[in-house]
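Second opinion, please. Pick holes in both lines of this record:
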Amino acid sequence: MKIIIDAFGGDNAPLEIIKGTMLAVDEYGIDAVLVGDEKKIESCISENNITVKNTEIVDAKGVISMCDDAKCVLKEKSDSSMAVGFKLLSEGKGDAFVSAGNTGAVTVGATFITKRIKGVKRPAIASVMPSAKKPILLMDCGANAECRPEHLYQFGLMGSLYMKNILKYENPTVALANNGTEETKGTPIVKEAYELMKNAPYNFIGNIEGRQIPFGDADVIVADGFTGNLILKMYEGVAKVLMSSIKDAFMKNTLTKLAYLGVKSGIDDMKKQFDYKDYGGAVMLGVKKPVIKAHGSADARTFKNAIKQAVWFLENDLIACIEKNIDKPKEA
């Protein structure tokens, strides 16, 4: 199993990317391909005394920043670590690709270099998120700001297949993000998507409001990329505020600090339950090879877990599963 790594994608590249890759090599037994400026990668390895094994380096001088236009991965920055990584993937020189870089560029590269699975109208970014009950999947998280009803229908199908095959949910429930649970609520596109999804071959349970999502009332949440990205970022922000507020409450004085000792194990469990680093990033569903978008601020542990997503993808042959099950929705 060979995983191609964008060594210069993300806020903490290349050091944390290299460290995370080596953790994955040790833990998952993979072979790695680090793509980026070879001299800088070797210098980083040497300066930080990193032990490297089962890894090759492919030189690529360019870097795509978070501010670059997404389409630059195709032309203007075709020499970048991300673009070269996608080319290696499309040429079969690796089994999966992981990058913590520009989300838009990852989406464009996955769509136009890796290419879509036949029958998939729009690839989408799917993020595993914590809930009060169990992990849930949100898609799309930013690949498609605007969607047609049939796109949302297919997101539900691919999300359901991910939860069945990767997280082993027996019959995952699928819900459509909306401003109300009633069938008549929402924009014309959402209402039409609802009609399509009622006849879907997956377990569609209707609309879901934002306040229900953290409770885990559905296993797969379907939304357009604009709405999904807002939900994701709000989710992460609220979690950070709550954990910070809890910490402040226990640090007020000696008495509260002593009280903390009595509930520490419970708070530690809660922190672990809502820690996004356990999943490392999001998967691009609907393209011909596994593409993983790691968190832009990923540290070594987070990036290692993003690579874990690629390993799961390959071990369970999710691409073949989507190819087999993708279909065109019946007209509403």
